[in-house]
Design a protein that fits this description.
Jelly Rolls; 0% helix; globular
């Protein structure tokens, strides 16, 4: 029987398990690390990402989904200025293996986008 666990992002020592948002500092690849999926073949991470833009201008956000290769691993979204949270990744899954998949992000403007969300970790 599968086990489900709701987790905060597993990214860096600063954000791991805190439930706080991750500020997107990077403006190019390789982006700011948001989440690192489990490195177990029987585990799937269902990832939900929301973005907020504190800037007075709209800002393009690029999510590097498990890889940095464009366009294969890129999800692009323009986040509206000062307008609350936007759903960017609606529960897409990453499956662990010997090399864990990493979700990263970069934006056209540094330090104005914050990524919030959670992970549903599903273990067989």
């Amino acid at each position: 029987m599968a086990t489900f666990s709701k987790l905060a992002f597993q990214a860096t020592t600063m954000t791991t398990g805190t439930g706080l948002g991750v500020k997107v500092v990077a403006t190019a690849t390789a982006g700011t690390t948001i989440h690192t999926a489990a490195n177990v073949a029987t585990t799937v991470d269902e990832v939900w990402l929301y973005a907020v833009n504190s800037s007075a201008s709209d800002v393009k956000l690029t999510i590097e989904w498990g890889e940095a290769t464009a366009p294969d691993g890129n999800i692009e979204y323009t986040v509206k200025a000062e307008n609350g949270l936007y759903l960017i990744v609606p529960g897409l899954v990453l499956q662990g293996n010997a090399t864990p998949k990493v979700v990263k992000a970069f934006a056209a403007t540094a330090n104005v986008i914050v990524i919030h969300g959670y992970v549903n970790r599903i273990t067989a």
